[in-house]
Amino acid sequence: NLKSAGTEKTKPLNFSYGDQTFSIAPEEINFTPNIDEATRQAYSFGRGGDWTHNIQSQIRCALNGRNVVLTAGYDENLLAEKLNEIAAQINRQPSNAYCYINADGSIGKVNGVIGYKLDTVAIAQSLKTPLETLDIPNNIELQPDEILPFVTTEDIANIDSIIGEYTTSYYPGARGDNIALAASYLNDRIVKTGWEFSFNDTVGERTYAAGYQTAGVIINGRTEDGVGGGVCQVSSTLYNAVLLAGLTPTVRTAHFFPSTYVAPGRDATVADGQIDFKFRNDLPHNVYLLSSAGSSSMTVFVLGTRADLNGAKIAIEQDGSTMTPSVYRVYYRDGQVVKEEFLHTDSYSEPVTDPPVTD
Length: 359
Hints:
With 359 residues, this protein is of the alpha+beta class. The protein has helices spanning 2-9, 35-44, 51-64, 76-90, 120-132, 174-184, 199-203, 231-244; strands spanning 13-17, 20-24, 32-33, 72-73, 98-101, 107-110, 115-117, 140-141, 145-147, 161-169, 189-191, 196-198, 214-219, 222-227, 248-251, 278-280, 287-293, 297-304, 313-320, 325-333, 336-345. It has eight helices and 21 strands. The strands form eight sheets. Strands 10-18-17-11 form a four-stranded antiparallel beta sheet. A three-stranded mixed beta sheet has the order 2-1-8, with helices on one face. The chain has a three-stranded antiparallel beta sheet with strand order 12-16-15. A hairpin with a 2-residue loop joins β1 (13-17) and β2. It starts with a helix and ends in a 14-residue tail after the last strand.
């Protein structure tokens, strides 16, 4: 009879994923066969028309039988909750691969981890018809979507050495705190072959809300107090590390007057929404940035593939005066110059000072 048929077809939803199994019992989603509705369908057969039609229908039923569709209902919200509980045991956030520098200067690496996300909405939709028609499968194999980390194991596979590094110093205080904060945004950054790196896009706006403090900045040729003072030292340190790693500066602006923390011609000023420092990775392989900042100094490391420099060592040289320096990048191999690049000639001005007060 219909009741026994409904009982026979009522069974748990069983799921499997790898060596894990999950089950949702019928009562957990208020799964109920529509016995009364099926009974009404069966009883109404041969009773809904005129006398002749009813007799003909009853004869056909006696000879051929009658299919009565047994359906079921369930609580979609409860099913969604149970599927989310299963997903919580399967879902996993991806984790970036990353590099670090060992005490002996060698490069250490940690592989990336692929994430997983179960599409519970799609699963619920796929179960709608089987549940409503009591055609419940014996087992449902779950197939979560893979989520690749932003930095994969393959992205850092060829990185084997420090190909550029640069250190600058400063005094502790608000300016040093600003430098340390901005430097933290440069740490663990991959720059793939062909990518252009933007300092402003990476570090973000220098505001009080972002944690920056008031310190000295250069505005219209004068040194004044402003939020985020000191961040230009971070962009300048990065600029020098980039040059020494053989990367390609694409946007770089000198300060109004020479800086104290780098040689003339080797600074790179930045300003929110106005002046950026950018570089492009034209090397055959990806590079990876690490930065560290203490109470009185910061360092930017560029990790990459040593073979990309063809055995050359890079030096930054300049000539001209302090106010109009010309800067060159020189590649040496076995003590001999194998390549020389002219980078730029800067033209600095004297700091603007207010006229002396007179009586």
